[in-house]
Amino acid sequence: MKNFKTALPASLIALSMLTLSGCSEAETEKAESKAESAMQETEEKAKEAKSYTEQKAKDAGEYVDDAVITTKVKAVIFEDDNLSSMDINVETNNGIVQLSGFVDNEADIDTAENLTATVKGVKDIENDIQVREEQ
Predict the structure, then answer these.
(1) Which residues contact 22 (CB under 8 A, 6 or more apart)?
(2) Cα–Cα distances in angstroms (integers) from residue 3 to residues 6, 8, 10, in the given order
(3) Cα–chain-centroid distance for residue 59?
(4) Which residues contact 7 (CB under 8 A, 6 or more apart)?
(5) Are 125 and 114 in contact (CB under 8 A)?
(6) pLDDT tens, 52-98?
(7) pTM greater than 0.85
(8) CA 92 – CA 44 distance, rounded (Å)
């Protein structure tokens, strides 16, 4: 980053000095060409930096969104009196919610999945909840 920040001003200073010193037209054109190349390189590096920054911001946003989704899914499961939220695990990755753990019957598996589907931002559900074996 430091290289392309200094490339443009340095090229412009060199171009100015050559022009002021009365150098030949060929030397001036050569300096102008170098300055233009430096400007293009600076623009390309700036675009790369912008793209990188935008991607990192998007990744951070997705991470926050996943945490929010997980929290909301846990909340809706907790609010249901028929489900034991302590026995159901919730993980979210890129909007895909994975449910796991144990419940008392098949109907509870469906209930947990249906509740999860009501949460905004859930793209898909991987339901690995199992019915607890009675001992």
Answers:
(1) none
(2) 5, 9, 10
(3) 1
(4) 38, 41, 42
(5) no
(6) 777 776 766 666 688 999 999 999 999 988 887 678 999 999 999 99
(7) no
(8) 36
